[in-house]
């Protein structure tokens, strides 16, 4: 199964709002990829920003897959993919 950039953003928003007990509409996310840092996200909550690394993104995706699709997956079954031509980031999820 492949998650789109929008679904990854939704996963991070939902996970952040749940962890911080705030409305999901209070969370903004921008995904990025570069050779030095790999996959990251900048997350803004109530005017404050913080950075998430790939492990944090995978944690959000694990939770999203369980709540939205009812499927239990593990971080090791998630592969992040950057398509520079499309300027998109995907998450390929292999169900074990």
From TrEMBL:
<dbReference type="InterPro" id="IPR020516">
    <property type="entry name" value="Uncharacterised_YxcD"/>
</dbReference>
<protein>
    <submittedName>
        <fullName>YxcD family protein</fullName>
    </submittedName>
</protein>
<dbReference type="Pfam" id="PF10850">
    <property type="entry name" value="DUF2653"/>
</dbReference>
């Amino acid at each position: 199964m492949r998650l789109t950039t929008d679904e990854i953003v939704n996963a991070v928003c939902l996970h952040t709002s749940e962890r911080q007990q705030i409305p999901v509409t209070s969370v903004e996310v921008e995904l990025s990829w570069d050779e030095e840092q790999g996959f990251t996200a900048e997350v803004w909550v109530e005017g404050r920003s913080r950075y998430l690394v790939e492990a944090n993104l995978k944690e959000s995706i694990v939770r999203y897959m369980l709540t939205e699709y009812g499927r239990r997956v593990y971080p090791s079954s998630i592969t992040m993919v950057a398509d520079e031509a499309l300027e998109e980031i995907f998450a390929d999820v292999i169900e074990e």
